[in-house]
Amino acid sequence: MDIKTGKGMRKRLIIIGIDGASYSLIEENVSRLRFFSKLMNNNNLRPLMSVIPPATIPAWFSIFTGVNPGKHGYFGFTEQHSYEYKLVRFNECPVPRIWNILSDHGLRCVIVNVPIVYPVEIIRGAMIAGMFSPSNRLNEKNLFPHYIIPLLRKLNYVIDINASELKELSTKEVYDRLSAAVEARTEAFKLLMDSFDADLGILVYTETDRAQHLFWYDKELVLRIYELVDKQISELLNYFNSPMIIVSDHGFRGVKKGVTGSLLLHELGYLKFRDDYYK
């Protein structure tokens, strides 16, 4: 690859996604987050309304298509297909994504770790699959073009982190695993943006979401991941010296109890399951 440097290039647009970013958590701990602190002091960091419903799938689809869920048609992780349900995919969305539109106009894009991107699409530039890819393999379904595979292997790049594996690790091991993934995404993004001389770069950090879903009540661990992402974004802004948009799909809060409606009705005697329900 012909790697160029970020500093001397023309300006391009950088979009950074932070999955599950909690504005209240950032606001309460802003003294630990230098970059977010600067944004907040300049009135450039504000809470925004998510889509309805405020969830991962409809929000990321709306962010990158520019239309609401009623128009792109995705409201959750699955959709009905015949008599079964399957995981939704960005490449099946009937509405063009921003990278499709720019590619059609001859502009180059680098797309890294956008949730539900699998399989990757053929675009002008490069694309790496994101969270919920069924495979961690560095292959042609997870990467485009295929010749970037050696670069990602050198960085020990991981497509996704298995959440069930994190539950079995110590706090230090969890942080080490998540931080390695964050740093590899940053380095891969910089190298690919320079190599393809891209006009648009999109990078989503999903490790914030992973940490919060599993360890919300371990605030120190969660904040350390936020600190790392804060630092990475600052470095990217300095590296590219280009306009940057920072977005998130939804906020976050703790949940101590949950209720499954059908099971509650069953326990109260208002609902009866078929004999083969659990088979």
Q: Layout of SSEs?
A:
Elements: E1 13-18, H1 23-28, H2 34-41, H3 56-65, H4 69-72, E2 78-81, E3 84-87, H5 98-104, E4 109-112, E5 125-128, E6 143-144, H6 149-154, H7 163-166, H8 171-195, E7 200-205, H9 207-215, H10 219-240, E8 244-247, H11 261-267
Parallel strand pairs: 1-7, 1-8, 4-5, 4-7
Antiparallel strand pairs: 2-3, 5-6
Helix pairs in contact: 8-10, 9-10
Folded structure, characterized:
- With 279 residues, the protein is of the alpha/beta class.
- The protein has helices spanning 23-28, 34-41, 56-65, 69-72, 98-104, 149-154, 163-166, 171-195, 207-215, 219-240, 261-267; strands at 13-18, 78-81, 84-87, 109-112, 125-128, 143-144, 200-205, 244-247.
- The strands form two sheets. A six-stranded mixed β-sheet has the order 6-5-4-7-1-8, with helices on both faces. Strands 2-3 form a two-stranded antiparallel sheet.
- Helix 8 (171-195) packs parallel to helix 10 (219-240) and helix 9 packs antiparallel against helix 10 (219-240).
- The longest helix has 25 residues, at 171-195.
Short description:
The protein has 11 helices and 8 strands.
Key structural traits:
279 residues, 6-stranded mixed β-sheet, two-stranded antiparallel ribbon, 39% helix, 12% strand, disordered N terminus
